[in-house]
Amino acid sequence: MKHECPCHGCLDRTLTCHHVGQCQKWEDWKKYEADKKEWEKQQKPIVSEAMVKKAYDNIKRKARGWRRRAGGNHDG
Predict the structure, then answer these.
(1) Structurally, how many domains does the chain consist of?
(2) Torsion of CA 67, 68, 69, 75, to 10 degrees
(3) I need a surface site. Which of 2, 7, 19, 44 has the fewest CB within 10 A?
(4) Domain that holds residue 31
(5) For residue 36, is it within any domain?
(6) In sequence order, which residues have a C-beta less than 8 Å from that of residue 3 and are 6 or more positions away?
(7) Which CA distances in Å does 51 have to 44, 47, 54, 72?
(8) Beta-carbon contacts of residue 71 (< 8 Å; ≥ 6 apart)
């Protein structure tokens, strides 16, 4: 379910709507989106720095056209 911002199509919209306490519908939507983002963040697997570095190294190797051969040597 997509939960759209209540500002779309709002007839009471002003320049100060998004200031704290001005629009209760927007405040509720903002809290909902923050909670959703936090929940999604908790669902992701734990990623270590070593995993990130290895993924980055693999991207570099692929971009340079290096292939793995017996003995660990690279074409190059």
Answers:
(1) 1
(2) 40
(3) 2
(4) 24-65
(5) yes
(6) 29, 32, 33, 36
(7) 14, 6, 5, 20
(8) none
Rounded-to-integer distance, Cα 76 and Cα 69, Å: 11
Is the pTM above the cut of 0.70?
no
pLDDT in tens, 60-75: 988 888 776 666 555 5
Q: Is residue 76 part of a domain?
A: no
Which two three-digit tokens encode residue 52?
């990130």
Please measure the distance between the N-terminal and C-terminal CA atoms of the chain and give it in whole angstroms.
Answer: 50
pLDDT given at position 2: 66
Q: Say if residues 63 and 73 touch (Cβ distance below 8 Å).
A: no
By residue count, the chain amounts to 76
Q: Decide if 32 is inside a domain.
A: yes
Six-digit token string for 56:
């980055």
